[in-house]
Amino acid sequence: MQKLIFSLFGIWPALIFGDTLVLDRWLWLRRRLPMVSGARLIDVGCGSGTFSLAASRRGYHVTGVSMDEGQNQKARNRAAWIGSDHAEFHDLDIRRLDEGQGLLGQFDVAICTETIEHILDDAKLMRDIADCLKPGGRLLLTAPYVGYKAITPDDNGPFSTVENGGHVRRGYREEDYRRLCEQAGLEAGEIGFCSGFLSQMLTKILRYVSSIHYLAGWILILPLRLFAPIIDPMPRGLGLWPDYSITLVARKSGEPVRRDEATTQGQREGPHG
Description:
By secondary structure, this protein is α/β, with parallel strands linked by helices. It has a single domain, classed as Rossmann fold (3-Layer(aba) Sandwich). It has helices spanning 2-9, 12-17, 20-30, 50-56, 69-82, 122-132, 174-184, 197-210, 214-221, 228-231, 233-238, 261-269; strands at residues 40-44, 61-66, 87-91, 107-113, 133-144, 186-194, 245-252. Helix 1 (2-9) crosses helix 5 (69-82), helix 6 packs across helix 7 and helix 8 (197-210) runs antiparallel to helix 9. The radius of gyration is 18 Å and the shape is globular. Residues 257-273 have low confidence and may be disordered.
């Protein structure tokens, strides 16, 4: 059944069948991933490959990296089902990203979404990601904002003191991002937020109703998901409700490798909406 669904609808089922925060992150990424032909992208902590495959459909040659072999195999299956031949998935612990074969200095873009908060040595991870980028390459990163309001009680911790798959810290501030970028040799650019009030409320409903049946929760919130991108900016702009995630666009210093200089410049600047 999954094969048929992905064959018919591409990667979109994976983007909308989960909680609303997943789609929010992709919409944020997509605005910063213009259509290209052949640029290389690494997805650090790629999970089941949802964002990797979505990026591959925009013309990127994608390398997804995760230590979870089962999730990587799921990503490979989905790549085959949607006909994406520009995505590969490596079984590699991202805490040892610097030991990966053929990764250093190879990528135009790195994405890392809701992953760094699971890693104790986040400064090393940032340095390793920076080392994977070409000069002029960009990092697109999201992580929980330290000031979020808990969607469900577990969001308030306690947070792990060891790397057991849980969050090892509540989240990040703008100054944390700037410090990590400075330590990694990256230039922090746009810092913002995503996943606002309505997205969080819909995710809350989904989590609670899922205790009865996941499909029931998903069907319940489905009609309202269309309104989240419209409504979410309003409480944010008025300072009434914090977004769940804090976002970062950073750049590795140096001149980019020249392909078609005019085209590449336009792709790098991209939309910032």
